[in-house]
Amino acid sequence: MKMGWIGGWGVSLEEMRAIAVAHAPEAEHLIYPPVMGAAENLVGCDAVIAWSLGAHLILEAGARGVKLPAKVLLFAPFTSFCAEHGACGRIPETQVKWLRRWLETEPTAALADFRKRAGLAPVIGTELPYALEYLLAGLDVLIQPAGISLVTFGRQGLPAGWEAYVGEKDTLLNPEGVCQAILGCHIGEGLGHDLREFLNA
Predict the structure, then answer these.
(1) Alpha carbon separation from 147 to 5, 35, 59 (Å, rounded)
(2) CB 41 within 8 A of CB 30
(3) 5: CB partners within 8 A, 6+ apart
(4) Which of 2, 74, 76, 154 makes a 20 to 30 Å CA pair with 142?
(5) Is the pTM of this model over 0.90?
């Protein structure tokens, strides 16, 4: 079985690979950071698991008509991330812009602060999870409100074979708002933003 993964913003491929192998040790895993075009790389997989910004990119690809695998699992998905752009997010746009400026000057500190706010374990070391240009591009995606095609795709309900889950205790997302924007999404009781929590539930 070939499983495709797209992780959350600021999460390394090594960290994602450890999660993937622990979840399905027998499978072949294709793992991509959450960058534009990542969803298209997964069309040949048997299943896709996407988390946070990765889940957003899968939804956006679906809205564009990309032919994705029949089995898609989305964790902590959203149509728009910033609080001003709908009901999905808790974080104001100004804070994301501030994080972007901080990332350009002190990337390690900026990433550590984001992980703490998201309820993720701190990372050891100072190496960036992936290229700075892609980290900045990811924040640019988070700052943008969802286009009409993505909003419509979410409100039409999830395609057959797709499942979506958002944590009741997510510090970045508003679970009720996510479920309004993405019909068919379920709230995971007692769960936060961390992918591991969903896979272990």
Answers:
(1) 24, 17, 12
(2) yes
(3) 16, 19, 20, 29, 30, 31, 32, 48, 49, 50, 51, 54
(4) 2
(5) yes
